[in-house]
Write a structure and sequence with these properties.
Helix content is 36%, strand content 16%. By secondary structure, the chain is an alpha/beta fold. It has one domain: Rossmann fold, CATH 3.40.50.970. Strands 2-1-3-4-6-5-7 form a seven-stranded mixed sheet, with helices on both faces. Helix 1 crosses helix 7 and helix 3 packs across helix 4. The protein is globular, with a radius of gyration of 17 Å. It starts with 25 loop residues before the first helix and ends in a 7-residue tail after the last strand.
Length: 251
């Protein structure tokens, strides 16, 4: 009996082994992006902009043209790349500390200007690469290395709902949040990422997709426990859904 082939590596991915921690869902996200690039047949026409953070080495995993940005500056870099190469598909991949802390100015104004780029925002509610500190998206009560007693809203305020915030800007054409904590949501996430790329291809404006992700290492949990923790704690505060679609008027 011959074995059936059930797995095919996307053409837009390299053969390099990923560096992510066991149970981290960054690798799933990067595969979904590669699958979307293949399905849209845009590999030779795509330019990715990388972050500073856990996904910093994504240039090793995608077989597309690539530009590395300083911490938080990916939307500004992507803006410049897109304006110089308006015929290219330009996107950034950024973590919560990158896009919602040091890069808040860049992402807000890129959206306000309606830059025709696609930004993928990986939210694991913590600073991963730099030691597990509190991030803008750390939920109230969550323990981190800088909030060992749990995030206190009286001291540190509340988590930033960046995707909803950007949805109200006139320049934003598409704003959505997805998750990759189980197979059903992985399938949904891919469809939303693809839609964000299609919005850019059609020239409809700025697109932002937030992707809820796990961080077993800095959460201090096993991979299985981290999935459950995301479901019970992150999802209630950061609900999944589309907050703005092309043609919808900002409120």
């Amino acid at each position: 009996m011959s074995a059936a082939k059930v797995f095919t590596k996307p053409a837009s991915m390299t053969d390099k082994i990923m560096h992510f921690c066991p149970g981290c869902t960054h690798g799933i996200i990067q595969r979904l992006v590669a699958e979307v690039i293949d399905e849209l047949d845009i590999r030779e026409n795509t330019i990715a902009v990388g972050p500073v953070g856990c996904a910093v080495f994504c240039y090793d995993y995608w077989d597309v043209d690539f530009h590395q940005a300083s911490h938080g500056r990916a939307p500004a870099v992507a803006t410049g790349v897109k304006r110089v190469h308006p015929d290219k598909v330009v996107f950034s991949l950024q973590g919560d500390g990158d896009i919602a802390a040091i890069g808040t100015t860049e992402i807000v104004h890129a959206a306000a200007r309606g830059e025709k780029i696609s930004c993928l925002f990986v939210n694991n509610s913590i600073y991963g690469m730099t030691g597990g500190q509190m991030a803008p998206t750390t939920i109230v009560g969550q323990k981190t290395t800088t909030t060992p007693g749990g995030r206190d809203s009286n001291m540190a305020g509340y988590p930033v709902k960046l995707t909803e915030m950007l949805a109200v800007l006139d320049g934003t054409a598409y704003s959505a949040r997805v998750s990759v904590h189980n197979p059903a949501n992985v399938i949904k996430a891919k469809k939303v990422i693809k839609k964000a790329f299609e919005v850019q291809i059609k020239g409809e404006g700025f697109a932002i997709v937030e992707i809820l992700s796990t961080c077993p290492t800095n959460w201090g949990l096993s991979p299985v426990e981290s999935i459950k923790w995301l479901e019970e704690n992150i999802l209630p505060y950061f609900p999944i859904g589309e907050f703005k679609t092309p043609g919808e008027v900002s409120r």
